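Data deposition worksheet. Section B asks for the primary sequence of the deposited chain exactly as it was used as input, without tags or linkers unless they were present during the calculation. Section C holds the resulting structure in C-alpha cell form. Section D is free text for depositor observations; keep each observation to a single sentence. Incomplete worksheets are returned to the depositor.
Section A, Depositor: J.P.
Section B:
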Amino acid sequence: MGLVSWSEFQQATPDIAAIGHRLLHHPDRGEVAILATVGRQGAPRVAPVCPVFTHHALYVLASRATPKVLQLRRDPRYALHAQVGATDLEFQVNGRVRPVDSPVERSSVLGAITFDSFDPEDPIFELLIGRAIAVVWPAPDSPTKLRWPPADRAPAD
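Section C:
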C-alpha cells in the first residue's frame, strides 16, 4: 500500500477519516496538532502546526523561520497527532510530505485557512498518508484501535 491523499484515505476508511477530520478541523478557528519530523542527526522533533483541509487534501504551512521547513525538505517523513478529543479520542497519521509549488494549489490552500497567524509566502506541504490510527473508548479501560491500512496489509517499516 502506497501513500495516498486525504480524499483517497477518506474513501478507503471513512470511519477513521471522520475521527481525524473532527479532531483536526474546526471551521471557525484553526486547530493545533503536533507534527513530528526527523532532525539532522535522525532524532525525532516535534512542533505545533495548524492543519488545513481542502476538498481533496490535508496540508500544513511551515514558517520559513522554523527548523521544520529544513527538516521536511531534507527528510519528508512525518507523523501528525491531533490533540486528544472528548472521551480521550485520538487520531494520528504518518507518511511523507509533498512540497506545494503550484500557484493554483497554493491559492486553494491559503483560501481554506481558518486562522489568522500565517504568512502567505511560507512553504506549504501536503501530508500524504501511509498509515493512520484512531483510538476510541467505547467503555472506560477498553480502548478500540482502528488502523489503516489493517495490520495484515500494512507496509513493513
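Section D:
The chain has a mean pLDDT of 90.
Strands lie at 33-38, 44-49, 52-53, 58-61, 77-82, 90-99, 124-139, 142-148.
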